[in-house]
Amino acid sequence: LDTDSALHQAIGTDQLLAHFQPIVDPGDRSVLGFEALIRWNRPGHGLVQPDEFIPLAQENGLIVAIGRQMLRSACQALIEWTATTESLRACYVSVNVAAAELHDDYHDRVLQILDETGLPPERLVLEITESALLTDIDRTRQILEKLRVAGVRVALDDFGTGYSSLSYLRQLPVDIIKIDRSFIGPLTTTPRAAALLDVVLNLAEALELSVVAEGVETAEQAAALDLRGCRSVQGYHFGRPVAPERMTAQLGLDE
Ligand code: G
Ligand code: G
Ligand code: MN
Ligand code: NA
User: Fold this and answer.
1) Using a 6 Å cutoff on CB, does residue 39 contact ligand 2?
2) Which ligand 2 atom is nearest residue 51's CA?
3) Where in the numbering of this chain does the EAL domain appear (predicted)?
4) Residue 30: closest CA among 80, 92, 86, 88
């Protein structure tokens, strides 16, 4: 079976699943939310990573159905596993959205899925990638504005890697910026990286935006971010993306 038709057949089945990575406070390690990251359990291939099929799905349009399934799974998983764990009850889930999903009915579909799963809109974040936005900025803005009115938050993903980050901040309704991991890796070894990070944190403060630092892999990076007042971090140091049934064990929350 070629990848195209195999992916088509995977839609609506449990071959497509969500893994989750915690987003935490670097000061006390309390869990604030989770990013949902898609995986494809393709028969005969094992667990396939998104880089190997999301670009294809964007080209052939399957991303719309995949995105809906993913959003539903992510909302359901959050409801189910946070219902049993007191400390996670206020956590949000952050779902990646491809530009090709932002059609006119996107707002309705999202609200429908929130309604069906019972997840309050305030507990959903939609992550939009800078590089994915180039198509139609006006339409994107209208859709995101409607979602924000409903209480859903919007994050600008991979911030700092696109060539028009600042332009997007001016034109799009954004609540959160996710600082790309290329700024975090050299943070404790390269003064320029630290200076750039300070600029981004100041920018976020001036615009009253929240910040999530991505790709935190060491205790030193976490401490440096904590010291700078960055209140949300994500990365292997705090937890890798895992299946939801493994999350409470990874976080040490099992009794
Ligand atoms: O774990 P990582 O390999 O999970 O993810 C690689 C890339 O795939 C990231 O850029 C991420 O944004 C993207 N990605 C992961 N899950 C999804 C998804 O559900 N939808 C879309 N559109 N992109 C995703
Ligand atoms: O949506 P986005 O492009 O931000 O996707 C996040 C990607 O980063 C996923 O592929 C995820 O598995 C990966 N990731 C998460 N934490 C770390 C980390 O600490 N280091 C590295 N190198 N990658 C990470
Ligand atoms: Mn993301
Ligand atoms: Na990112």
Assistant:
1) no
2) 10
3) 1-255
4) 88
Q: Does the beta carbon of 89 lie inside 6 Å of ligand 2? A: no
Mutational test site, ligand 2, from 37, 125, 176, 218, max ligand atoms within 8 Å of CB: 37
pLDDT mean values, one per 10 residues, the chain (255 residues): 94 98 97 98 97 94 96 96 89 95 93 98 93 77 95 95 83 94 94 94 96 98 96 97 92 79
Dist. CA 32–CA 29, nearest whole Å:
9
Tell whether pTM > 0.80: yes
Single-letter amino acid code for the residue at 126: L
The answer to whether residues 208 and 227 touch, using CB atoms and an 8 Å cutoff, is: no
CA of 97 to the centre of ligand 1 (A): 9
CB of 54 closer than 8 Å to CB of 40? no
| Tokens 């981004």 -> residue | 200
- Alpha carbons 171 and 162: distance in angstroms, whole number: 15
Residue 44 Cα distances to 6, 26, 70, 122, 181, angstroms: 11, 40, 22, 39, 32
> Which DSSP state fits 132?
G
Main-chain dihedrals φ then ψ at residue 243, nearest 5 degrees: -60, 150
Name the token pair of 135.
């198509």
Main-chain phi, psi angles of 118, to 5 degrees:
85, 10
Atom index in ligand 1 nearest the CA of residue 127 equals 12
